[in-house]
Amino acid sequence: MAHVDVADTTLYYERRGAGEPLLLVQGMSGTHLSWGEPFLHALGDGLELLVYDHRGAGRSANQERSFTIAQLADDAAGLLDAAGWESAHVMGISMGGMVAQELVLGHPERVRTLTLGCTFPGGPEAQLPEPALVQGLGAAMMSGDRERALRAGYAANVSDAFAADPGHWESFRAMASALPVAVAVIMMQMQAVAGHNTAARLPNVAVPTLIVHGTEDRMLPVVNGRLLARLIPHARLEILDGVGHMFWWEQPERSAALVRSHVLDQ
């Protein structure tokens, strides 16, 4: 557990394990806790994991000024420097997948393999969530009722089948409540996502790429995963049937197995 100064901010990060270096980049409103112990444990031996909190989130320094996805990618590159890693395997999910795209495009020598989960490239062919879903999440977030906001976020991020088990909700609630991200920071993250567009540059990606997407993803529909697979040369696409946005939370063992084989079999 440590803090490091990167650019104009201070980031919190944790390292665990030994072996091939794997940087894990979380999504909007996520923290290092959002990976969940089942997924991290299932990644198993042979990997050294680095998880962290984006600027303004979790245990990282407060953030008052807006930022871009490219700036978050520069943060990630700075974190690799702090870890002493010249390069690493990189997995990014949702907003973190956008960060990972900018990282491999802006710092291609730093990325050994790329895993993009439940994310999108931006551009005219990409699909955002339904307006009603966005409005409902916004209303819950701005209500000041933390429980309402958590339940709305949970319903939007997992499949109906997964949500039917009350034990799953309790695990999610405990994680999300442990390190809540300020609404102001989430709004800045939303602004950064709105400006994300790598579609025209993704054909330049030259590292082995795995794309994972659930068919029941309401936050970023599965069409985005298929679009990424078409834009990135030789990308491998894994579609998880019946799984929502937080696929690594719903199916940690299967998700970890996909990542392990992608990283270790190259």
Description:
By secondary structure, the chain is an alpha/beta fold. It has one domain (2-128, 182-264): Rossmann fold (3-Layer(aba) Sandwich), CATH 3.40.50. It contains 11 helices and 8 strands. The protein has helices at residues 37-43, 69-83, 95-106, 131-142, 146-157, 160-163, 166-178, 183-194, 223-231, 247-250, 252-264, and strands at residues 2-6, 9-17, 19-25, 46-52, 88-93, 111-117, 209-214, 236-240.
List the helices and strands and how they pair.
Elements: E1 2-6, E2 9-17, E3 19-25, H1 37-43, E4 46-52, H2 69-83, E5 88-93, H3 95-106, E6 111-117, H4 131-142, H5 146-157, H6 160-163, H7 166-178, H8 183-194, E7 209-214, H9 223-231, E8 236-240, H10 247-250, H11 252-264
Parallel strand pairs: 3-4, 3-5, 5-6, 6-7, 7-8
Antiparallel strand pairs: 1-2, 2-4
Helix pairs in contact: 1-11, 2-3, 4-5
In short:
The chain has 266 residues and is of the alpha/beta class.
Features:
20% strand, eight-stranded mixed sheet, 266 residues, 42% helix, Rossmann fold, alpha/beta
Taking all Cα atoms into account, the compactness measure Rg is 17 Å
- Can you tell me the overall shape? globular
* CATH-level-2 architecture: 3-Layer(aba) Sandwich
Q: Main β-sheet, in a few words?
A: 8 strands, mixed
Count of β-strands: 8
